[in-house]
Amino acid sequence: MNQVRVTVLCVPESDAELAADRMMQAGAFAVEERFAVPGRVELRAAMGEGAWRALGTMPIGWELRVESVDAEPLDTWRQ
Prior knowledge:
Blueprint: E1 3-12, H1 16-25, E2 32-35, E3 40-46, H2 51-55, E4 63-70
Antiparallel strand pairs: 1-3, 1-4, 2-3
């Protein structure tokens, strides 16, 4: 099974646009927005290895992590 590393940034809902822009500036081609818990948004993007450095220091209340996800569903559009 192929795995893809996804950068996940969880921020206050009021910071969602700013955080998505920061991810795009750091090299994300697209950013998925998911509502996490009330008042928080989870932004997800496949980014290169240097993404953490490019994202810089996170403001207080922003949480950054990387998850490995199954890559197979990413190719279902080809079927």
